[in-house]
Design a protein that fits this description.
Largest sheet: 11 strands, mixed
Low-confidence stretches: 20-35, 75-84
Number of strands: 13
Order of helices and strands: HEEEEEEHEHEEEHEEE
Number of helices: 4
Strand content: 35-45%
Number of domains: 2
Length: 267
């Protein structure tokens, strides 16, 4: 009897999984569209540094999840899934050095991301593993809270010198309000150096970072220095604000991966 039950189980499980994936592919945009006022946008940014950078590794990947509230006059969602939607390669410059940037599924806060079903299962399992390992502090698979981990390879004063010649990435927030507050979390898999993170009022501060004109939100929780993992809350930021993340020009692994999570608070 036990053998029969196992046989039935092994037959039924793949069939159910296949039907779930097929249903999501055909009707996922109808079944999984959020009817709540909360929206999630999810995208990746691939950065390739050009030869003038000193880093032995020239590649950075930013995986970004941004959850925010819909406006009252726009409750209809434009939905994108995990389909391969890329922008064109763009040669850009920062602090006199060039790099190529490629974005995947970036919608500039105009579309709602909906995960394919099996992808969500994988994300949930990964979340639980990280929680057991102590690398994740939240039991909610939809919210990531990372421990506060300092970079111990060198001190904060050295970091402030190093990042003045580093790479700066701007991550825009999404909001329907003129003023809002955000919980956020950041981590990197690069164990050789630390990152700085600052909430700023606009993307213009990205270029200002290398000058005395640089300005950021200085309230506690709105910035972090020389970290490898960090979670915080930044209150009362303006609509065009965002998060800049800075790395020294000393990247060593083949690819440095950075995970960024932004969650708008009910304002």
């Amino acid at each position: 009897m036990q053998h029969i039950v196992k046989t039935v189980f092994y037959i039924i499980l793949p069939v159910v999984a296949f039907l779930l994936i097929l249903t999501n592919a055909l009707y996922g945009h109808l079944l999984f569209v959020s009817t709540t006022e909360y929206v999630t946008t999810k995208y990746s940014v691939y950065v390739h540094l050009q030869p003038e950078w000193h880093s032995s590794s020239k590649n950075i990947i930013f995986d970004v999840t941004n959850s925010w509230y819909k406006s009252e006059n726009n409750k209809t969602n434009n939905v994108i899934s995990d389909s391969k939607e890329y922008n064109s390669n763009q040669l850009q410059f920062i602090n006199g050095k060039s790099y190529v940037e490629l974005k995947h599924s970036f919608s500039n806060c105009q579309k709602e991301w909906q995960p394919i079903s099996y992808g969500r299962v994988v994300d949930t399992v990964r979340h639980e593993i990280e929680y057991v390992q102590g690398n994740q502090l939240s039991t909610n698979p939809d919210i990531s809270v990372y421990p506060d981990i300092e970079n111990t390879n060198y001190d904060k004063s050295q970091q402030q010198i190093k990042i003045k010649d580093g790479y700066v990435q701007f991550i825009p927030i999404c909001t329907s309000n003129d003023m809002t507050s955000y919980d956020y979390s950041i981590k990197t898999d690069n164990d050789d150096l630390g990152f700085d993170a600052y909430f700023v009022s606009s993307s213009l501060e990205r270029d200002n970072f290398f000058s005395y004109d640089f300005d950021y939100y200085k309230n506690p929780g709105c910035f972090a220095q020389n970290k490898q993992s960090y979670s915080g809350t930044c209150n009362d930021v303006e609509k065009n604000s965002g998060l800049i993340i800075v790395f020294p020009d000393e990247l060593n692994p083949w690819v440095t991966k950075v995970t960024v999570n932004l969650y708008e608070k009910k304002y």
